[in-house]
């Protein structure tokens, strides 16, 4: 036995070092320094200094038997923890649940702008024109240093001949230096108030509370009753959402990597979460309100009440740029406290982000509106979290950490004692099943707020239409054509919706609508051009491509698909006098293009708006009386068990854009499969009916919400290596597979090659997310991957491409 040297015990901190390499080290805490989990610290690292975040703190006796002395950390960069204990606990939970490193989670939790010390300066570099150069110098610059010439030109036209350095582009630094040497410009530190909204948002007229309908009032009362509980009974038993995050196990910090020995840590947040039955008032709330039922009005009034009670409010929207109207309505309603409203969006500069973040943390901004990552906004005294359009896929982050914003919101609400309201006209089946199981409380708005009825939905059978028009790729039925003509005559507006989900193609017969499906999985088979085969992306079942339709023997069985551009061209020919505009990703490259287009549409300068998924969201145009859905089928036959759910959601949401004013709305749905349940239930505005039959299918085929589902993907520019890696992982996952887990076969992804990389994937299913994640993490930890292969694990995957 060795003699362990005696060392005076000292409290220690486990520190995650800033930077790309995820280093975690333990440091001793110097006497009296108030270091807590979540604090930012300066530490010695080899011969240098570094900054980092304290993940956990251990008491003196924890270091007593280490056998060596830890280096002490230097100092605190901030007197208070930047991350509250609750948020740190949330971070650990996310890391464990989604199988991500704690560093990757901290990175989204505390944005880079906040971690970088430079941004803390309330000044920023600005460039001023010192002496305007003479003609000759200018001409020389133009020839020899075009960049410098541009800068001079910009400054000449700028107010006070001054511009922030950042406005000159990222590479401007050296050019400015040369100009400074020549004595032409000067760099100064400029005091600035960075107001992210300062640039050109339209004027917003303040609004006041509307008188609520009985249903709205009942919903508001229930929400407020729930948040009341939050304020008076902090120690209440927690809710336990499932099929969202399961929060019965306490989050434990991930072990430190590298040379650090295990260190017993006091748990970040103190109290471990225990499971317990929730009472009605504490459960997350699902607000199911039909389109136009006035959910937003309920959010607004609930938010006001919670703010008045002294607590803060977080509003999550699927995507800021696609939900401009929701944001506008919040701004308008809270116009009196405009300086307490923070809108977080991806266009914020680093400096703006830094300012907003600290405004929020200090309690100056008390209502925060933002997309997914705003779920981490450091609001103190959080009272209410509103998740608008909770069914939207964009809440799932498609990069590490692959968290779901809605599920994290539910967990955060639980940790902070805040009421969580998930609002939607088309609940995700996960949330819906939670209301059936009594885990979420269900509130309903069944009527449109303006007293209008839901629009009439007509389904057009395109099989008959293509016979009538003797064309295989027709996408304008006679019915839709005459309806549009009618609207043009009456000076009413039309939205045409093109469903373009899924590049993966299914085989569909234009004569009978038959779609080739997997006999084992109830999913459309995907056509693989490379080997001319149909493949099931769940079980691997393969079939030859039929030369005739297996159903009706028609040889015309074809691959479907057409784009918005082509549709626009055709419509311009058919309706030469109409003012037509197109909204899709291509058309929106330019900054503010979406806003300008929507404004023009609102001002009735556009008759027909053609678009993709984008126009399905939250838009409200009173003069739109016709909505056409050109190809309701396409999303239906992608290799994804949620395909039917997505189509139902899309049809319902798109249809919801019609007839929102005093005029009645009509919806025309063109489809090759008019009898598919998604289309029929959407047509009858029957969410309950849809959910019932869809849940039955999910139960039968063992899909979420009755199981957890994860996808493991390997990618490489080298096809064989990607495939081989996944096969190896598959083999290892199969060895001592925990009971209850179903391991799918390794297969080429539906999107076989993307960004030059070949992709292979396998699906895992099981009753518990944690068990799944842990098993995969363990296998990954002991498998050394080839350098040119990337492996991605996606828990609760929403995308199977
Ligand atoms: N109590 C009310 N009295 C009168 N009008 C109302 C009331 N509540 C809402 N409205 C109006 O009804 C319209 C639809 O409401 P809102 O947009 O809030 O519905 P929503 O449920 O959020 O719709 P969607 O989910 O389709 O976006 C809006 O113009 C809103 O101003
Ligand atoms: Zn199958």
TrEMBL record:
Residues 276-445 form the Helicase ATP-binding domain. Transmembrane segments: none annotated. SUPFAM superfamilies: P-loop containing nucleoside triphosphate hydrolases. The lineage of its organism: Bacteria, Pseudomonadati, Verrucomicrobiota, Verrucomicrobiia, Verrucomicrobiales. CDD domains: DEXHc_priA, SF2_C_priA. Residues 544-698 form the Helicase C-terminal domain. Zn(2+) 1 binds at residues 509, 512, 549, 552. It catalyses: ATP + H2O = ADP + phosphate + H(+); Couples ATP hydrolysis with the unwinding of duplex DNA by translocating in the 3'-5' direction. This is Replication restart protein PriA. Initiates the restart of stalled replication forks, which reloads the replicative helicase on sites other than the origin of replication. Recognizes and binds to abandoned replication forks and remodels them to uncover a helicase loading site. Promotes assembly of the primosome at these replication forks. It comes from Haloferula helveola.
């Amino acid at each position: 036995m060795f003699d362990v040297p005696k060392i005076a015990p000292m409290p220690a901190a486990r520190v995650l070092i800033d930077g790309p390499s995820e280093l975690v080290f333990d440091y001793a805490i110097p006497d009296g320094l108030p270091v807590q989990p979540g604090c930012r610290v300066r530490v010695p690292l080899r011969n240098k200094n570094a900054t980092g975040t304290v993940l956990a703190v251990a008491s003196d006796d924890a270091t007593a038997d280490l056998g060596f002395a830890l280096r002490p950390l230097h100092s605190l960069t901030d007197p208070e923890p930047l991350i509250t204990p609750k948020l740190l606990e949330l971070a650990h939970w996310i890391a464990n649940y989604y199988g991500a490193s704690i560093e990757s989670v901290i990175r989204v939790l505390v944005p880079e702008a906040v971690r970088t010390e430079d941004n803390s300066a309330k000044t920023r570099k600005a460039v001023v024109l010192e002496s305007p150069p003479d003609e000759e110098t200018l001409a020389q610059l133009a020839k020899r240093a075009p960049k410098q010439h541009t800068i001079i030109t910009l400054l000449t036209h700028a107010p006070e001949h001054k511009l922030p350095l950042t406005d000159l582009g990222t590479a401007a630094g050296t050019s400015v230096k040369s100009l400074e040497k020549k004595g032409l410009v000067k760099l100064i530190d400029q005091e600035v108030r960075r107001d992210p909204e300062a640039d050109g948002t339209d004027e917003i007229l303040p609004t006041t509370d509307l008188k609520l309908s009985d249903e709205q009032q009942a919903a508001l009362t229930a929400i407020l009753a729930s948040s009341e509980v939050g304020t008076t009974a902090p120690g209440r038993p927690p809710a336990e959402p499932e099929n969202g995050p399961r929060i019965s196990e306490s989050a434990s910090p991930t072990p430190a990597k590298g040379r650090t020995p295990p260190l017993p840590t006091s748990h970040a947040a103190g109290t471990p979460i225990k499971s317990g039955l929730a009472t009605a008032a504490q459960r997350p709330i699902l607000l199911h309100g039909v389109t136009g039922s006035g959910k937003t009005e309920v959010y607004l009034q609930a938010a006001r009440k919670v703010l008045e009670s002294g607590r803060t409010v977080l509003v999550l929207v699927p995507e800021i740029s696609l939900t401009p109207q929701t944001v506008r309505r919040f701004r308008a309603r809270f116009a009196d406290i405009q300086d307490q409203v923070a809108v977080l969006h991806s266009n914020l500069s680093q400096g703006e982000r830094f300012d907003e973040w600290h405004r929020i943390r200090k309690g100056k901004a008390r209502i925060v509106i933002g997309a997914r990552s705003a779920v981490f906004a450091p609001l103190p005294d959080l009272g209410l979290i509103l998740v608008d359009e909770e069914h939207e896929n964009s809440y799932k982050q498609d990069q590490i950490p692959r968290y779901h914003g809605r599920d994290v919101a539910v967990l955060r609400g639980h940790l902070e004692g805040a009421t969580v309201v998930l609002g939607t006209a088309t609940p995700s089946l996960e949330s819906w099943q939670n209301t059936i199981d009594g885990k979420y409380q269900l509130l309903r708005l069944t009527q449109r707020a303006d007293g209008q009825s839901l629009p009439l939905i007509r389904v057009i059978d395109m099989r008959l239409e293509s016979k009538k028009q003797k064309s295989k790729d027709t996408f304008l039925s006679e019915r839709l054509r005459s309806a549009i003509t009618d609207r043009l005559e009456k000076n009413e507006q039309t939205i045409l919706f093109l469903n373009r989900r899924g590049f993966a193609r299914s085989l569909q017969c234009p004569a009978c609508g038959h779609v080739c499906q997997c006999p084992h999985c109830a999913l459309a088979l995907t056509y693989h051009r490379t080997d001319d085969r149909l493949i099931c992306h769940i079980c691997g079942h393969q079939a030859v491509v039929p030369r005739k339709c297996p159903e009706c023997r028609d040889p015309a069985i074809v691959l479907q698909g057409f784009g918005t551009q082509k549709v626009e061209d055709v419509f311009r020919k058919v309706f030469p006098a109409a003012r037509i505009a197109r909204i899709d990703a291509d058309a929106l490259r330019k900054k503010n293009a979406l806003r300008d287009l929507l404004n023009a549409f609102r001002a009735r300068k556009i008759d027909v708006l053609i678009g993709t998924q984008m126009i399905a969201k939250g838009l409200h145009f009173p003069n739109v009386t016709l909505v056409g859905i050109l190809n309701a089928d396409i999303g239906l036959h992608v290799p994804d068990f949620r395909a039917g759910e997505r189509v139902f959601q899309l049809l319902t949401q798109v249809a919801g854009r019609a007839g929102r004013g005093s005029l009645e709305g009509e919806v025309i749905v063109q489809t090759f499969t008019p009898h598919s349940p998604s289309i029929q239930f959407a047509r009858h505005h029957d969410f309950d009916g849809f959910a019932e039959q869809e849940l039955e299918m999910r139960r039968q085929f063992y899909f979420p919400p009755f199981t957890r589902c994860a996808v493991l993907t390997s990618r490489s520019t080298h096809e064989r290596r990607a495939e081989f890696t996944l096969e190896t992982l598959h083999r290892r996952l199969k060895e001592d597979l925990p009971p209850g887990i179903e391991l799918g076969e390794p297969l080429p992804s539906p999107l076989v090659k993307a960004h030059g990389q070949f992709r292979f994937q396998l699906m895992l299913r099981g009753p518990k997310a944690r068990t799944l994640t842990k098993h995969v993490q363990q296998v990954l930890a002991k498998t050394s991957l080839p350098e040119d292969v990337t492996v991605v694990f996606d828990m609760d995957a929403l995308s199977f491409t």
